[in-house]
Specification:
Helix content is 13%, strand content 47%. The two termini are 25 Å apart. The protein is built from three helices and 13 strands, in the order ββββαββαβββββαββ.
Length: 196
C-alpha cells in the first residue's frame, strides 16, 4: 500500500508498506517506509524510476521472522538443515556443514547490531563444530563474509537505523530510538503471521 499527499512540497508525504520484501538480501515479513518533505526527480519519474532528491524526515520499521532469518542464513551457505530460535536476546542455530568430506554438526549463538546509521550486522558470540569451539580468526572471517546483512547502498534514499530488537519470534529493525515504542507511521496491510 502506498500513499502520497502533495499539498505543498515541504509537506509531501510518502508511505510505503510491503510484505515479504527483499531489503538487499534480507527478506523481511513486513516493512514500512515513511518520508516527509520529499522532493522527487520528475524526469526520472517519467522514465519509471523513483529518484528522491531530498527528504526532510525519513523513517523505517521492519520485522523479520525467525523463518526469514533461517532463509537468509541458508542462502548461499553450505549449512544444511539449519534450525534457528531465539531467547529474546540471542539468535541460536544448529545445523550441519560439509567439512573435510563429512557432514559436521554446527552450533551457533550470535546477536544483531546496528552499525553506524544504515547497516545491520550479525556477530557470533559462540560457534562450535562437533562440540569444539571455533577459533576467533575463523569466526571473524565468516562474519566478514556475511556482514552487513542489511545494507542500503543501492537504495534511492537512506534511512537512519537507530535500534533493533530480537524477540523470540522477530528481529525488529527501526529508525526510532526505542524499538519497543509504538510505530506512529505503521498502518495498513494485514496483521503479520508466521506460517509453519
Amino acid at each position: 500500500m502506498t500513499s502520497c499527499r502533495t499539498s505543498t512540497p515541504a509537506d509531501t508525504r510518502i508511505s510505503v508498506y510491503a510484505k515479504k520484501a527483499n531489503l538487499g538480501g534480507l527478506l523481511v515479513d513486513e516493512v514500512w517506509f515513511w518520508l516527509v518533505g520529499v522532493s522527487l526527480d520528475v524526469p526520472a519519474l517519467g522514465r519509471g524510476e523513483l529518484v528522491i532528491k531530498d527528504a526532510r524526515e525519513t523513517a523505517v520499521h521492519a520485522r523479520a521472522s525467525i523463518k526469514r532469518l533461517e532463509e537468509y542464513f541458508q542462502d548461499g551457505n553450505p549449512v544444511k538443515d539449519i534450525r534457528l530460535w531465539s531467547d529474546g536476546e540471542y539468535l541460536y542455530g544448529k545445523g550441519t556443514v560439509p567439512f573435510g568430506g563429512a557432514m559436521t554438526k554446527v552450533y551457533l549463538r550470535g546477536f544483531f547490531a546496528v552499525g553506524g546509521t544504515k547497516d545491520v550486522y550479525f556477530y557470533v558470540a559462540d560457534l562450535r563444530v562437533n562440540g569444539l569451539p571455533m577459533l576467533a580468526p575463523l569466526i571473524k572471517k565468516w562474519e566478514n563474509e556475511i556482514n552487513p546483512i542489511l545494507n542500503q547502498t543501492d537504495w534511492p534514499v537512506t534511512f537512519k537505523l537507530r535500534a533493533l530488537k530480537m524477540t523470540k519470534e522477530w528481529l525488529v529493525i527501526v529508525s526510532q530510538a526505542d524499538p519497543e515504542a509504538p510505530c506512529h507511521f505503521c498502518s495498513g496491510g494485514e496483521p503479520a503471521s508466521v506460517a509453519p
